């Protein structure tokens, strides 16, 4: 069951109770068995200053933020995942504040962050251009976007499977996730200047799943 509705005096409420429980269990095991923890460390290496993280989930990025980060504002709309992120924030080596909000309406002033982080979240947002426009708005000029996302396959066979799943069961089963989006094109079209990035499969060397094709890199406002 999934719902999204306004809460009086606050942002829309996003509620994926079954997916949140599944994700909270699966994501923890994937940190080591799937190598995701090492990818999170690569994603966040060298960051400094104020950072906004959108779609923080259960807070698995938090332990990987380097000490040069002065504050992380972690935005998570889903109730259960935000509760878990709050617990993870207390174990982080840098200050982390977990807040409700959605990618399309970030609770922050213009130009208030040095960097922004999205990891495995652009697949789920309802309006990707609006979310990326919000990230550009809250970043200072020259601010950096760090991204780790899965997306469209480069092979015709898997790409057809992805499109078929996205039209049917995949978003319903996985909290609104879509497998056939193109995060690099979306980031470029939003006005960011792409920096270094690399493409790979997760798990590397393992079975190729609809969510396997990934990209990790940087862009600038």
From TrEMBL:
UniProt keyword annotation of Methyltransferase present: yes
Keywords: Methyltransferase, Transferase
Pfam families (alphabetical): Methyltransf_11
Gene Ontology terms: biological process: methylation
A GO molecular-function descriptor: methyltransferase activity
Domain of life: Bacteria
EC number(s) recorded for this UniProt protein: 2.1.1.-
Domain Methyltransferase type: start-end pairs: 52-146
Coiled-coil regions, chain positions: none
Keyword Methyltransferase among record annotations: yes
Record-given protein name: Class I SAM-dependent methyltransferase
């Amino acid at each position: 069951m999934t719902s999204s509705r306004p809460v009086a005096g606050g942002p829309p409420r996003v509620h994926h109770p079954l997916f949140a429980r599944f994700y909270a269990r699966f994501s923890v095991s994937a940190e080591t068995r799937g190598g995701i923890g090492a990818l999170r460390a690569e994603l966040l290496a060298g960051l400094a200053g104020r950072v906004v993280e959108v779609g923080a989930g259960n807070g698995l990025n938090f332990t990987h933020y380097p000490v040069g980060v002065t504050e992380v504002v972690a935005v998570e709309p889903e109730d259960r995942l935000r509760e878990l992120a709050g617990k993870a924030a207390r174990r982080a080596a840098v200050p982390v504040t977990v807040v409700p909000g959605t990618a399309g309406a970030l609770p922050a002033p213009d130009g208030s962050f040095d960097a922004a982080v999205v990891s495995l979240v652009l697949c789920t947002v309802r309006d990707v251009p609006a979310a990326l426009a919000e990230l550009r708005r809250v970043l200072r000029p020259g601010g950096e976007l760090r991204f780790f996302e899965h997306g469209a396959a480069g092979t015709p066979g898997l790409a057809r499977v992805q499109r078929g799943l996205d039209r049917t069961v995949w978003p319903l089963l996985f909290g609104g996730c879509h497998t056939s989006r193109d995060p690099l094109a979306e980031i470029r079209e939003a006005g960011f200047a792409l920096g270094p990035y690399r493409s790979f499969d997760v798990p590397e060397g393992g079975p190729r799943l609809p969510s396997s094709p990934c990209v990790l890199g940087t862009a600038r406002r």
